[in-house]
């Protein structure tokens, strides 16, 4: 049934695409794009999105966006998205981003502007387009830095607020800054459950993320041959429940580096989250540290092979008891520019990144996943 | 005068272009020239309304324009970028020789704009001829064309300007 509804969404996306390609051709002022991707996951050990141990198609992403130049300085942008990912996401249609982008200053070598509304947070190399198969390296994001499975993704991906952006160009390099000031937003029961675990979540009636601030400074050299970025986030999580208030203060830092060559791309990202948790039962400070290294090889113009090793430690004071290791091998093939077929194999030791909400039983320490995804874009 | 100096097939084609006269240059001409003359070069090509002399654009300027960081010309007209599809040889050559950016890196930048809403990516057109027409007919437009070796470029540009009222600027001089 789920697959059927996904296929209906795909048919809608396809028919929208023929209409939209005609539109975007007329003038450059309005562009409408979108994508649809359907995954199949088969796992051993733990479930990853739905009942993947039996094989699941409970992983689908689709979106349509519009970008309109209202005046030389003002752009309007919006995207609606539907995402189905086991119990982590249920296929509801949501506004992914919706903002006005005002470029206040622009001269020969630099520019500065503001975005107001719901904006994507720049965090690491991939966060601002993390739901698009065509823009991420593998079917599942690097769990170590992007926290796909444990409830943090919903907090990380977008903010309602203001984003300031700026750049400075030199002949051979460019430097960009983006700072996002988010409004306080309340978290759904599903997110709370994924974040704190089902038992703890049952005592929490209501939770908010208070005024998150994201900042990213990035530097690109030689036309993107080398890219570097440092990203930070500061957020406070507050909850009220039957056992009093809880508060979680978190500071995150990501260092990113990438080398792009004709055939090869090498990427490394390192993440550190310091957290401070306070509740009626006591306080706890935890530092989460994680990193991955990834190499990609372009076998042909339309075939990319990816290999990645990820490491994450959920508690730096107990590195040997809280570590997880992911080994990923994948292939992306674009049989036509609008299509992509991807297949990945994930070997996971440890439980970091495994969605808790897809399980009734305790997680096992060993997971293997075969993932296949077909994507269409327009 | 140039026509007499050229090998016959080339002169015939050039004659056709002059006859067509609307600035519509058949894509086949570039390949014929490529066989018989020195290799054609790629020229950045902008609509006259942009008020820019593309010869004066630096590598940094071109990267800012084609990466869609820079959005307006100095006369405040919005910059509208037109390109061919990623896999087209002309596009690949433009990226590598003019922008000195790998095409896949540029594609990643454009996809980020598209799917985070942070900019209007270039409009992709279906053929070199459509690219030429889109640039010639869209105020503020910029793109690239395959231009011919010097002697031919001069001829084409002369006729192009003669026959196309909204004449593009910045042909290779």
From TrEMBL, chain A:
Signal sequence segment: 1-22
Claim: Signal is one of the keywords in the record: yes
Keywords: Signal
SUPFAM superfamilies according to UniProt: Porins
Record protein name field: Porin
Organism: Zhongshania antarctica
Automatic annotation (TrEMBL), chain B:
Origin superkingdom: Bacteria
Protein name as catalogued: PBP domain-containing protein
